[in-house]
Amino acid sequence: MQKDVGKFGISDKRGRVKTSSDPYIPEEGRKEPSLCNGCKAVYKNKRWTFDPDFYETASKDSGSHWVTCPACQKIEQKYAEGVVTLRGGYLWEHEEEIRNILKNEETRAMAKNPLERIIQISRQDDALVVETTEEKLAEHLGRALHKAHQGEINVSWTEDHARCRVTWEREA
Question: For residue 167, which of 87, 100, 94, 90 has the smallest C-alpha distance?
Answer without folding.
Answer: 87
